[in-house]
Design brief:
With 207 residues, this protein is of the alpha+beta class. It is 26% helix and 25% strand. It has one helix and nine strands, in the order βββββββαββ. The strands form three sheets. A four-stranded mixed β-sheet has the order 2-7-6-4, with no helix packed on it. Strands 1-3-5 form a three-stranded antiparallel β-sheet, with no helix packed on it.
Length: 207
């Protein structure tokens, strides 16, 4: 009796790792989470049976594991290259790793475009402040000149008004005559006069 032995060819096809899409720009904090997965070329092996290793910037490869994510924290500013390889349980490894290139932004005070914009805004604010101060100074000077001119005109009008008033009351035997003028404002519209008509003294106070 002959026993037939069947030999199945060993799977020599390598799996393929796939990186999940993520941003190519990382904030200045330098924190980034990278995720990946894999698939067998002919779907002979479930994805859960694959193992992975990774490296950053051409450094040493990590140990093979089933883990499919890694978080980097506080990376310095600059450009980085992250690579992942996949291996199936037959030991097949893909020849070329899948890669993701990303850059960590520098702090704003080390970012020339940002610094230039900040300097421009500060300079613009300083220029506007200077213009305001100059305009305000000119306005105050013009206001002071106007007030001085108005005060001078009031002084002149007051002197003219007081010049129209009688210097003294007439002296008439048997009569005491007195008068006073107090304008409601610095210069009023009132005046007084004393006239002699038909041997009698009459005082008039029109307004």
């Amino acid at each position: 009796m002959k026993v037939a032995r069947l030999r199945f060819p060993t799977d020599r096809s390598s799996p393929r790792a796939e990186l999940e899409p993520t941003s190519k720009e990382v904030s200045a904090r330098g924190n980034i989470l990278l995720r990946w997965s894999g698939r067998d070329r002919w779907a002979h092996m479930p994805a859960a049976a694959l193992r992975y290793q990774w490296r950053l910037d051409g450094g040493e490869w990590s140990a093979w594991s089933e883990r499919r994510d890694h978080t980097f924290v506080e990376l310095k500013n600059g450009e980085y290259r992250f690579e992942v390889l996949a291996m199936d349980r037959e030991g097949n490894v893909e020849g070329t790793p899948v890669a993701h290139v990303f850059a960590v932004d520098p702090p704003w005070w080390k970012n020339p475009p940002v610094v230039l914009r900040m300097l421009f805004l500060v300079g613009l604010a300083g220029l506007q402040t200077q213009r305001y101060l100059v305009a305000n100074s000119k306005f105050q000077e013009a206001q002071a000149r106007l007030i001085a001119e108005l005060e001078q005109e009031l002084e002149t009008a007051h002197a003219l008004q007081m010049g129209l008033m009688p210097d003294a009351s007439p002296q008439i035997a048997g009569y005491d005559i007195a008068g006073v003028c107090r304008p409601a404002t610095y210069v009023g519209g009132d005046f007084s006069s004393i006239t002699n008509a038909k041997a009698s003294c009459r005082s008039a106070w029109p307004t």
